[in-house]
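agent> Task received from the user: take the single chain below, predict its 3D structure, and emit structure tokens. No templates, no multimer pairing.
agent> Plan: (1) validate residues, (2) run structure prediction, (3) serialize to tokens, (4) report one or two observations.
agent> Step 1 OK, no nonstandard residues flagged.
tool_call: predict_structure(input=
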Amino acid sequence: MNESPQSTQSSVLSSEQKISTAQDLAQLVDQIAILLQDADQVDKREYEALYAAFYRNKNQVESSLDTEGKELVLLQEARLNDLNQQFRKIERERNEVLAAKQIENGTKVEALLNELESLLDESIDFKVIYDGFHRIREGWESLRPLTQQDESRLGKKFVALRDAFYDLKHINEELRDYDFRKNLEAKQALLEEMRALEQSDDILDAIRKLDVLVARWRDVGPVSRDNRAEIAQAYKTLTTSIYKRHQAYHDGVKEEETQNAQRKEELVARVQAYLQDLPKSVAQWTTRTDEIKSLQEEWRNIGRASKKSNTDLYLRFREVCDQFFVAKQEFFKERKQTQSEAISQRKALIEKANEVANGRSYVETAEALKALQEEWKRLPHLRKEEGDALWTEFRKPFDAFFQRKREHDRKQHGIEHHNELRKKSLLSELKAFVDQEEIPSNLKEKLTTIKENWKKIGRAGETVNDKLWEEFCALNDVLYERLRKLSSQRRGEQVKARYKKLSEQPQGVQSELQFLQRKAERLRGELRNYDNNISFLSAGNKGGANPLIAEVERKRVRLAQDLEHVEEELSMLRSMESK
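)
tool_result: status=success, residues=579
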């Protein structure tokens, strides 16, 4: 954007804002440098506008800059001073040339008017006077510019001599008609030029040229009465058409400025909305910063709004952007402080872990270390390099303790043997249920109790633990299968009874069918997830029995059986419905 950035809320600009401020000022200086490259075409008003914009923007932000920012601004100001000296030199040379030209033109115009005055005073053929008048009038119109004093003084003299000429001309009617014809030809030529302007695509250039043609039209004398109304109407039609196009152009510019103002209002509102929901993480701040910069780029590509609202909109947009970057600066400042505290806290936990790991009670020490590990997890995250290094240091006392504990556990082999006997006792209970012909009514509750007791027992010996688990799972599968068969029989009776009730309700059977179809689809999705999990676990398994894979496969089998039961119910309901 061409305006200079200003922070109205913060007394200190961020590094990004200092660079942005210097870049905005540098852009103004670059525009002035480009403008001065062609000394003959320098537009003074454009230069003065850019020069004023530089110091206006500089004054707006200077009080908010630190030493580094002020040095950047002073660097651009030094460039501007060099360019200003160059402009003043060009302006002096141009004014000197203009003044010399004005004096030269004034001398020539005065000589022409003196010649016209002599012609009018002499008693000579009017045709000579007539030709001399028109020649002198062309010289009068072409010899510009004049000094303001000469323009006024010599203009009055020309008007007086022109009136004297026409007073004298009226004496000769024939020459008067000739003058009318000449004036008609001149005005028709001007009308042709106006018609060309009417077709011009550049309405601003056309209106400037029209002003010149209008001035020339007024300098041309009258035409005959027969042509006066027609020529006046043609002049009015053409000028009105061009002026209307000019007005339409400005109306379009005004509409475009209104639309630009609306787009800029939307950008201000979007940044204000961002301020209401500031990011909470580094990644979110990075993403949101990119979005803000994108909005700033979009702002730069939007044209100007009206003079009345453009500056106000810019200041508001700059203010909310400044608020965002100040909030970002505060976030990273606080984060840096938090990171420092987190490092200190981790170091304290490392020191504490080294003390706890030397405890005499394995159970209490393990629980204490586990508590320290949970406390570690609750601490704020660090950067990967720092976090990994501290985590490695934190794990050292853990590894030393558990290595010592494993050596101790190997001495406790008797405990594993005791666990083996307890698990075999539970297997005996399961085998007793398998051998029974009648299924106890509370079998499911007993199986749940046995499973809970199994979980409470520690590991048996390494050579028998997995075998005991496999046998435990196999017996459970047999008993649960018997429960499922019994449940299937009961389910068939329940389906028939439910169908009878549903058939008495409007759309009851259809609603139940839709419910079962959705349930079947959900079970198929879960079944696919189990298949994926088994494939993933099998791919990572290096060989040997894997209790986790076995458990997942058993759950998958049960899920497939549940799906089979649902599909069976669907089939039964459809069959009943078709009958």
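agent> Step 4: summary for the user.
The CA atoms of residues 267 and 295 lie 7 Å apart.
agent> Done.
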